[in-house]
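Aim 2 progress. For NADH-ubiquinone oxidoreductase chain 3, the working sequence is reproduced below.
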Amino acid sequence: MNMVMFMFLLSLALSTLLTILNLWLAQTNPDGEKLSPYECGFDPLGTARLPFSIRFFLVAILFLLFDLEIALLLPLPWATQLSYPIMTMLWTSIILSLLSLGLVYEWIQGGLEWAE
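Predicted structure tokens for this construct:
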């Protein structure tokens, strides 16, 4: 049995064991308070469907964009060991400059301002 198959079976067995232990040992004794949507004891005063500001979504999308950028650039130190490290650095510079230009554009347009 090779190492990949061993690790796959070990992780499958461990996750199955932990799931079964969780289902077996979990204490489930729900009461009326726990089953209610508001556990704090207060009745809801208004609707839960209030509209969000679009600025929250803009900040979330910008966070995801730059988080993905970091995830894509994480293997860059190992990519310099390739046969053409200049091309790797060129593509990295292009990606970073495009993202930086987009951020500057949003900043200039006022998309990152909270006060209106």
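The mean pLDDT is 80. This observation will guide construct design in the next reporting period.
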